[in-house]
Design brief:
Elements (H helix, E strand, L loop, with lengths): L1 H17 L4 E6 L7 E8 L6 E9 L10 E7 L5 H6 L7 E7 L6 E9 L4 E9 L4 E11 L14
Antiparallel strand pairs: 1-2, 2-3, 3-4, 5-6, 6-7, 7-8
Length: 157
């Protein structure tokens, strides 16, 4: 049983390490640390006028990556009322991006939540583990001010 689990875990680790399609930067923390800061970009799949850049620690030869991450999101295209109409308006929002961070079921997630009162999209980056969460997180906001979506959505407060 252990061998099968270890093989599946190592395959998952390899797939994560090879997935660099959205990588835009890689900064080494030193030759002997075996850890790098990876810089990735992601475009919101529904609000396509928003791009987020995420910096996170990756340790290629470690069994667990640190939970540290940083996120910065900006408007990089049009944001329309139709896009805002499609998103989850609950106070929990919705996960728009998820990436495996270790073979022990740790993942980094980015969740979109809308602040209706201030007409602002919030993007929260955080890590989860199968048995527990992490208190480390990062937040970025994208105001709808100046977009076609501003004022178009007057949902429940």
């Amino acid at each position: 049983m252990f061998k099968k689990t270890a093989v599946v875990g190592l395959l998952a680790l390899g797939l994560t390490a090879c997935d660099s399609s959205d990588e835009v930067g890689d900064v080494s923390l030193g030759l002997f640390t075996m850890k790098d800061i990876k810089l990735n970009h992601m475009q919101d799949p529904v609000v396509t006028g928003v791009t987020c850049h995420v910096a996170s620690i990756e340790a290629d030869f470690s069994l667990a990556d640190p939970s540290d991450s940083s996120i910065s999101c900006r408007q990089t295209g049009e944001i329309t009322p139709e896009m805002i109409a499609k998103i989850d308006k609950s106070s929990n929002g919705e996960v728009v991006f998820k990436k495996s961070k270790s073979i022990f079921f740790k993942s980094m997630k980015i969740r979109r939540i809308i602040d209706v009162e201030n007409q602002t999209l919030m993007y929260l980056s955080y890590s989860t583990k199968e048995t527990s969460g992490s208190f480390k997180h990062s937040l970025s906001t994208v105001p709808l001010w100046g977009t076609k979506a501003y004022g178009a959505y007057q949902g429940e407060k």
